[in-house]
Design goal:
Blueprint lengths: L4 E10 L3 E4 H4 L7 H8 L3 E4 L6 H16 L8 E5 L10 H8 L6 E5 L5 H14 L5 E9 L9 H4 L4 E11 L4 E9 L7 E3 L12 E3 L1 H22 L9 E4 L4 H10 L11 H4 L6 H11 L8 E8 L3 E8 L1
Helix pairs in contact: 3-4, 7-8
Bound molecules: oxa(dethia)-CoA.
Length: 320
């Protein structure tokens, strides 16, 4: 093990061009702007164009990160893509990204932890860096959830969107970087949030199914707890946090978690109103938004937390 830290040296993002407002979604689903806004905080979401794949979103987010920090893609030695909506069953979406960005060596793989995918991905990237297996890792959360919506199910179809966010982690001898991570899963809650298809079950991609109220209750009870455990592992407390960058599923969950952690909403990056729930992409999209709007700055303490189908949940603490 090295005593290297995994420091974020760049962020990037990409959102498909098509913006679908609540009013537009109300033209083909029996719902209203008022219902969606008050229950979830969502006002609009982006949908990928026909033929625009998860890998296309991921590649665009990666290129944005390379450009923002003037980084040569060939200096990357690993690519991890967190996604529940890969282009194909195999190969991994990450290997498509690796090829598209022109990497000649290194390795690439996907991580499947749905909405907690980005937390799982940076936790794994951090472990690879600490083990000395990679020095610069491109970590992406990328999703096209519009492809697994059941448009007849208004309880889920109004909530999700497409997008991708990326960070580049670098091994550095530094006080900055990923200070701690905290991961959990509990497969007994499978039926609360899942896709009703798959290669070895139905032979189809399937559609998303969610018992929203139940997932909501788990989110409210688990997210503050995992964030506080991660803070404890880092030797910090809630009062040290400069920004919570939460998974963006529901504004009410985001507020309840911040409230439990005693952190005011002024210290929470919120993008759910414009993005909807983009699953594994939501945290890196929000991180990039925080960086580009100059809210997130060097040396600040950032807490990220998420929960998703599995159930899977977790948190990470970074000194930016
Ligand atoms: O990212 C993974 C984690 N996922 C989450 O964190 C999602 C967690 N869950 C939630 O965010 C919320 O539970 C929802 C936003 C999904 C739903 O909010 P809710 O306050 O739990 O509403 P509900 O499911 O209890 O539905 C309330 C009512 C029902 O009508 P009745 O039975 O009270 O007459 C639904 O039929 O709202 C109705 N309803 C709708 N009405 C208009 C459900 N969906 C819609 C809709 N438009 N789209």
């Amino acid at each position: 093990m090295s005593d290297m830290q995994s420091v974020v040296i760049a962020t990037g993002s990409y959102l498909p061009k098509r913006i679908v407002t609540n009013d537009e979604i109300s033209t083909f689903i029996d719902t209203s702007d008022e219902w969606i806004r008050t229950r979830s905080g969502i006002e609009a979401r982006h949908f990928a164009a026909e033929g625009e794949l998860t890998s296309d979103l991921a590649i665009a987010a990666a290129n944005d990160a390379f450009q923002s920090a003037n980084i040569d893609p060939n200096s990357i030695d690993a690519v991890i893509v967190a996604t529940a909506t890969p282009d194909e069953t195999f190969p991994s979406t990450a290997s498509k990204v690796q090829h598209a960005i022109g990497m000649k060596g290194g390795f690439a793989f996907d991580i499947s932890a749905v909405c907690a995918g980005f937390i799982y991905a940076i936790s794994n990237a951090d472990a690879l860096i600490r083990a000395g297996q990679a020095k610069r890792i491109l970590v992406i959360g990328a999703e096209t959830f519009s492809r697994i919506m059941d448009w007849e199910d208004r309880t889920t179809a109004v909530l999700f969107g497409d997008g991708a966010g990326a960070v580049i982690l670098e091994a550095q001898d530094s006080e900055r970087g990923i200070l701690s991570t905290d991961l959990h899963s509990d497969g007994s809650h499978h039926d609360l949030l899942y896709v009703d298809g798959g290669v070895s079950s139905t032979g189809t991609a399937g559609k998303l199914r969610m018992q929203g109220k139940e997932v909501f209750k788990h989110a409210v009870s688990k997210l503050a707890k995992t964030a506080e455990t991660a803070l404890e592992k880092a030797g910090l407390q809630s009062s040290d946090v400069d920004w919570i960058v939460p998974h963006q599923a529901n504004l009410r969950i985001i507020k309840a978690t911040a409230d439990k952690m005693n952190i005011p909403m002024e210290q929470v990056i919120v993008t759910v109103q414009n993005h909807g729930n983009t699953s594994a992409a939501s945290i890196p999209l929000a991180l990039d938004h925080g960086v580009k709007t100059k809210q997130i700055r060097k040396n600040q303490i950032i807490a990220i937390e998420a929960i998703g189908g599995g159930l899977v949940w977790g948190a990470a603490i970074l000194r930016w």
